[in-house]
Write a structure and sequence with these properties.
Structural class: mainly alpha
Largest sheet: none
Shape: elongated
Number of helices: 7
Number of strands: 0
Oligomer: single chain
Strand content: under 5%
Distance between the termini: 25 Å
Order of helices and strands: HHHHHHH
Helix content: 55-70%
Radius of gyration: 21 Å
Length: 174
Amino acid sequence: EAASSADASEREAYTEALRRRADLIEAGATKADLVLTGETMMDRYPQDDYEPVGVPPVDRYTINLLRLGPDRIKAPEPTLEDARKLYLKEKLDADNPATDSRVVGLANRVIATTTKAIGRNPVLATLTRDDARKVRDEMLDRVKVTGRGVGQKVSAATVSRELSIVAAVINLAA
């Protein structure tokens, strides 16, 4: 499961936890059964004064959703990484072997550059014009390492094209 892996985002972990909760409800679990299951899961982890510690994100969301329900435990805001994964899946059909790997690679590189320039994996709703300027400036300062013009800065047209990819990724997820 992608949501159970170490590189799963908070949003993917939340989605997996919702699926687990829905599976229990479909199997006939009552509200009391859900709470008991959540408490049992919680007991598997060491406790501090307030909550279990060292809980993987999927289990943390599962415990909280079972005990408190989705009305009280809201989905995390989407991040740029969540947006990238959605874009690869929905627009580029990255899982299809017929998809051009160069296009997928370009999208991955552009988003990696964006994340590096901002210095974090930002929540989409918190992105600012200042973040966009940092990304633009970082892209304009890059030097070509392959192809024609090795050692020269990338062109403004290349940066414009790459910023269009960033905008497409963000707009799809927004």
